[in-house]
């Protein structure tokens, strides 16, 4: 009986796979839209992005080039089009393509990568604020209709809004003194300070801006 040349067959399969991969990589970028620019300055994309299942995606800026850091993978990134940036096409690890997304205020708030044959969203981690600042922001405020409410601070949980007759609404840090609630991404709460003193809480939404003076 003739022996099956398994080693030769496996070699042919590897060579065929390598050839197919080379041909596929040569066609990468066919859907690129030329002459586009990022919507933000490169520094605005830098930060830590988190996914509960996949962990932390680190985007850094070095010498005017975005850097991709994901577990053991460390690559520089190049602009593809609009808010998409790609890592180099590595023969061993392939290519990572990152699409950045903005919130209703126009800030970069998430990054999307295809992993394990699925689209995975990494949410930008908010700025870390000093607990002492949280304590200063907490207190009583009043609406233009004279309704008094409280901004509450709980160590480990952060700030929340407490209106009469309703449950507390968690405030999620965005940037600086800007916060939002989990329910509405297009409603921003920003604390106003003068000479280091908190003077008001401002609420901005698509309909306008309201000022709630500190009591």
Please provide a written account of the structure:
By secondary structure, the protein is mainly beta. The protein folds into two domains: 32-124, Lipocalin, CATH 2.40.128; 131-213, Lipocalin (Beta Barrel), CATH 2.40.128. Helices cover 13% and strands 46% of the residues. It contains two helices and 18 strands. The protein has helices at 6-26, 131-137, and strands at 47-51, 55-62, 65-70, 73-76, 78-81, 84-86, 97-102, 108-115, 118-124, 139-142, 148-154, 158-162, 169-170, 172-175, 178-180, 188-194, 197-205, 208-213. Strands 4-3-2-1-9-8-7-6-5 form a nine-stranded antiparallel beta sheet, with no helix packed on it. Strands 14-15-16-17-18 form a five-stranded antiparallel beta sheet, with no helix packed on it. Strands 10-11-12-13 form a four-stranded antiparallel beta sheet, with helices on one face. The N and C termini lie far apart (95 Å).
């Amino acid at each position: 009986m003739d022996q099956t040349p398994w080693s030769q067959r496996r070699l042919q399969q590897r060579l065929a796979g390598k050839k197919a991969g080379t041909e596929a990589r040569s066609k990468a970028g066919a859907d690129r839209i030329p002459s586009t620019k990022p919507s933000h300055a490169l520094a605005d994309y830098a930060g830590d992005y988190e996914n509960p299942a996949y962990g932390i995606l680190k985007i850094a800026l070095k010498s005017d080039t975005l850097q991709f850091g994901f577990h053991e993978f460390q690559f520089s990134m190049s602009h593809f089009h609009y808010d998409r940036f790609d890592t180099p096409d590595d023969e061993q690890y392939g290519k990572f393509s990152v699409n950045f997304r903005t919130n209703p205020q126009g800030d970069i708030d998430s990054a999307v990568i295809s992993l394990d044959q699925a689209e995975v969203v990494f949410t930008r981690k908010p700025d870390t604020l000093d607990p002492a600042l949280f304590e200063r922001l907490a207190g009583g405020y009043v609406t233009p209709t004279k309704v008094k409410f409280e901004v509450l601070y709980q160590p480990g949980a952060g700030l929340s809004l407490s209106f009469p007759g309703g449950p507390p609404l968690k405030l999620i840090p965005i940037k600086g003194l800007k916060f939002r609630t989990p329910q509405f991404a297009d409603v921003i709460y920003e604390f106003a300070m003068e000479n280091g003193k908190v003077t008001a809480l401002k609420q901005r939404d698509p309909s306008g801006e309201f000022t709630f003076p500190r009591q």
